[in-house]
Protein 1
Amino acid sequence: MIRNYISIMIVFVVVVSCSSRNITEYYYRNQRVLDSIHANYKSLITENGFTLFFKDRSYKSITLEIFTDSLKYIYYFKINEARLYDTLLKYKFKPNDFYLLMNDMIRVRSLWVAKLDYYVGSKKENLIYISFRSRPVRFFFSQQKYFMINWFQKPQYYDHRGILLDEKLQSAYRELNDRTSHRINDTVAYRISNRFR
Amino acid sequence: MKKYFTTKAIYILLPFFLLLLPFNSFSFLKYSGKDLTPISTREEATTLVNSINTLPASTYWPSIQPDLFLQNIKKNIAEPLSIYEGSYLNFCGYAALSYIPLHYDPVGYLKFILEMYTTGKAHYGKVYFQPSQAVMKAAGTIKFKGVLDINHADQMWFLSLADNFKGYLNLVNMRYDPGDERTLWAAVNFAKFNLMISKLFNYSVHSIGSDIIRPKINDIYSYLKKQLESGITFMYVDNYILTLKKHHFLRPAFPTHFIVLLDIYYSDGLINMTYWDYGFRTFIKITPSFLKKIVFGISHCTNIN
């Protein structure tokens, strides 16, 4: 009896931990932290553009890409390294805001935050997005999927199923990095991809 | 349906590719001397392109917008490092080799691209281009790929190159259909990359490495440093490792990306490397062992014109 109970529990844990997240529900459940990541990142990139990536599952080390006028710099840091603080000062980032951003990302287990440029006709627009693993645990040979939450600068057009439409040709779906996006609210949408960036 | 058959074909043909791989992927083209004298200068190209105010619509490239086309070639001449392959597309090989004409013969590039636009066919080096109807219709229609959306001349250039040059990776999909720019139709293997440079620009290419086996060089840093002093150096790298995604433990290493090496030096026990990665110059500090891990091919090119 106990053995059966344990087996059922194991199956339950595996099924629950591997099931896809309901992203809209996830967004609203963690809205305060997620919107804080967005707002914080948006204010930080006014100095220099950058992307932040947690490169290990233990969230102890990061890859920081910093964009200047002439070069993109790629740095690898441990999150508690003094070098990181010095680098943030060198590029005129506010360290407190940056560490808050990192902590928020760790709290919601986000992998990556970046700005993405896209074009509506010939007009350049941009959005901010963060990536997560779609499943916290995956089976050995199953492909990892990632979901991304996009914050647009203005309300977007969606069809009746909530799929993001091309702003110019509203008969076509807009793809962002090869994927269609789904509505969370007018300015926030999500997409699912097999790459985190 | 086509994607389904393409996937099936890959599985069926893979063993044959692996057998043929040594003949396809290893590349040891001839090497002679050191010469990087430009054939034409950016100033000459700027004068030429600035003399064109408007272009009529091309009958051969129905989807290309003349104003975007002209704006694109002007930008390529003024800022040759701004050329961008498009996100999630297999155009990195074609974008990488564009480094040579845009830096060392911009007038040659301009004449070719304008002739292609006006007549639908043209010669470049030893190669005669006459793209298929499907490719001509597609240029100007690629969307949602970043700045490539508005770079109609680059769309024409990349699609024409992909349509003209075929390597073993392209055997499963030889004919262009819309969307094929992200499939094996556009893929570039190492030997094809070297062949394109040698045929298009009449450059001498000395290459080492392959599509699956890393080059046997003990001190890869010194090798790259020496190559850089005497020519243009392209690296064929595993970009997946370069972006340091440690979340996938079981992924086999293989090269996925071409980059142009611009500078390399030692500092604080680390290799400081600057490379061109389309749209951006990138600076990175890495260990020698990491460098060895990512590099699968090195091509060294010099002008023999």
Note: Chain A touches chain B at residues 53, 55-57, 63, 67, 70-76, 111, 117-119, 122, 124, 133, 144, 166, 174-178, 196-197 (CB under 8 Å).
Protein 2
Amino acid sequence: MSALSVKHLIGIKYLTIDDIELIFKTTDSFKEVINRPIKKVPTLRDTTVVNLFFENSTRTRISFELAEKRLSADIVNFSASSSSVSKGETLIDTVNNILAMKVDMVVMRHPSPGAPMFLARHINASIINAGDGTHEHPTQALLDAYSIREKLGTVKGKKVCIIGDIKHSRVALSNIYCLQKLGAEVMLVGPPTLMPTYIEALGVKVEYNLKKALEWCDVANVLRIQLERQDIKYFPSLREYALYFGINKSLLDSLKKEIVIMHPGPINRGVEISSDVADSEHSIILNQVENGVAVRMATLFLLSGRKE
Amino acid sequence: MQPRIILSSEKFTFTIERLCRQLIEVHGDFSDSIIIGVQPRGILLANRIHIRLAELLKREIKYGIIDPTFYRDDFRTSDKQLTPAITEIDFQIECKKIILIDDVLFSGRTIRAAMDALLDFGRPEKVELLVMVDRRFKRQLPIHPDYIGKSIDSISSEKVKVEWKEKEGFDRIWIIPKSEIE
């Protein structure tokens, strides 16, 4: 397999196992590049990428921007708050106006699930979904799986639990698809109010007891409570959430084995994870961030170089 | 026309031996010299030369691998998608003499890309080029090898394939006519 089967990276759901393996193999090369004295290659010097962020982002946006810069692409940054979107312009009009200025690729974050898919039907440029509402965040899932592969040698056969606000998490859904395609077992853990109904239909285990889940898993991917997406109260207090679903050192010490701790960021220290765990040797949170740049370079490279 | 062997297994070994002796003649004990194989097929020759040089000199020779994919000029124009391979240069190349090693020199574009990739790691004192097969009169860039296993005259539509014991079971070089490639 030497080319992606898709023109856009809308979601992990649409990727084949070969696609994911190709992205990982390409990421290996870019990981070496970003650790060189000169962390830049000229491959996409003929490409212009627009980063369309209709929703706030720090890490993903910086990660994409660095990935694009290290591939020598030209970059246009766009944020909805300071644009004509606030004057009532539609998504297609906004994007078509930008594409008329000869932009080749679009990286988009949007609060509405399905927005990148909608756009893909109407424009010719390749689109990379940098998170669409509560739907998917494919590059995050790819970098998470890549980080597990890097730490444990393989993803196949590993037991991964995803802990926290599953209901509002695009990271959780993309991770489920990605990990299952790569042969891992997935367990979801969180308060029942933050667990989507019928989620078992995706072939995942559901557990409400954090200790039991941690005893079962090799890797714990801890999610942030997304208060900005919660229109009602899903649990009594953050303090109570931390008590039942927060990971702390004494809980990890009580396990009979060592597990790998991951977090897609931003971390709410003291809520879903305590500082001593986030900064411990079990944590690969900063490796995830480093791998994020390499994974995004790989997806930009593979989508840009794809032949019709 | 049928594919034909232009270098047999027996002569193949002699050629590599000669290339190693030529390298020692120029680079002495290799204290300031490094050999670097060009991905993907150049590393097979570089590996062989690395092992033989270490035997002849009775010392470890610095050896690296470089992948020119990200520096190629056919990223857009190639028929198939380019996919990268691993680069491994775990040492300083500043002020060193570098010998780039590839299996076949044709247009010179791969070597141009490999040199650009190499210069991102530092400023070597000198860069030389060693190839197993030099397809003469086919260069599209002003690049010339310093050490040549075998020079051949061929037409552009023909393909030259270097086979390796480690990969294909035999050490030999083929010239394959266009009709056989298709």
Note: The mean pLDDT of chain A is 92.
